[in-house]
Design brief:
Radius of gyration: 32 Å
Number of domains: 2
CATH architecture of the largest domain: Orthogonal Bundle
Largest sheet: none
Mean pLDDT: 82
CATH class of the largest domain: Mainly Alpha
Number of strands: 0
Helix content: over 70%
CATH topology of the largest domain: Globin-like
Order of helices and strands: HHHHHHHHHHH
Number of helices: 11
Strand content: under 5%
Length: 275
């Protein structure tokens, strides 16, 4: 079997560029790999050539799985940066394998019945190596996606007080929100009862409204409801001579903004859990 495996390896290595050109011509017009259609022809050929030349090292290496990473990680990174969808990148690998064997058949590498029978063992080895590469590409692609999501959610996750804070995060959130709401009560009493004005101090209330929605999602709307009820009740008690319509609008806006942000945060959390 080793003689026939070596025969296939030598063919692939010596004709790497020729096989890669046939693969590139196919993948750049195939209807299942549309993202490849706009890529530079030389770049696609170079990628195919790199893989076919790596085939010998993968085949002869003591640890073929580790040797495959030389190609598969770079392959995943290159096409992730070019925004090639994962399913297209994997299908392109399938075409690589197909063109390898089509070329071997076309060249009459395995002629006799015995050679063809023993070539099946070489085929099994080839399939195994391609399986290694496919698995590693998917693994690396997923790692890159998760890293991208983590970076893009970095600021939000900081506001969410997740990560390093760990289990104490919930206690800190409750403590901070209690302080915010207590300050809101003091400000409301001061402006309504002492100064007898409905000044724009209520704009500060958007801070606890937004933070509550970020921290607790849809449940955070209760902070908005509390603040809305607070200013309406206080207005009714201390500002009897001033129309309440302004505070009604403010209370409604607290609830609307809290609800919208809470709904968005629920979606972001589900997306993060998915990745």
């Amino acid at each position: 079997m080793q003689a026939y495996a070596a025969k296939l390896i030598e063919l692939i290595e010596s004709k790497a560029e020729s096989i890669a050109k046939q693969w590139a011509a196919d993948v750049m017009k195939h209807d299942r790999t549309p993202s490849y259609h706009s890529l530079p022809n030389d770049m696609v050929i170079e990628q195919g050539t790199d893989f076919y030349r790596l085939f010998r090292r993968m085949s002869l290496a003591e640890n073929s799985y580790d040797e495959a990473k030389t190609f598969s990680w770079k392959y995943a990174e290159d096409f992730y940066r070019k925004k090639i969808p994962l399913h297209e990148a994997i299908y392109a690998l399938m075409l690589m394998r197909r063109h390898l064997w089509l070329y071997a058949e076309f060249q009459g590498t395995f002629v006799t019945a015995l050679e063809k029978q023993q070539a099946v063992e070489s085929l099994n080895r080839t399939i195994l190596l391609f399986d290694y590469v496919s698995y590693q590409v998917i693994e690396k692609y997923q790692e890159l996606i998760i890293g991208s999501v983590e970076r893009r959610l970095g600021a939000i996750k900081t506001l969410m007080m997740t990560g390093p804070i760990g289990g104490k995060g919930s206690t800190y959130k409750v403590g901070l929100m209690t302080i915010f709401l207590l300050v809101a009560c003091i400000l409301t009493y001061h402006y309504h009862a002492t100064l007898k004005t409905e000044d724009i101090f209520t704009h500060l209330f958007y801070i606890p409204v937004i933070l509550a929605s970020i921290w607790w999602g849809k449940k955070g709307i209760f902070a908005a409801i509390f603040l809305g009820v607070l200013i309406l009740t206080s207005h009714a008690l201390f500002l009897t001579g001033i129309p309440i319509s302004g505070d009604v609008v403010r209370a409604i806006m607290f609830v609307v903004i809290g609800g919208v942000i809470g709904w968005l945060m629920e979606g972001i959390k589900k997306l993060e859990e998915l990745y």
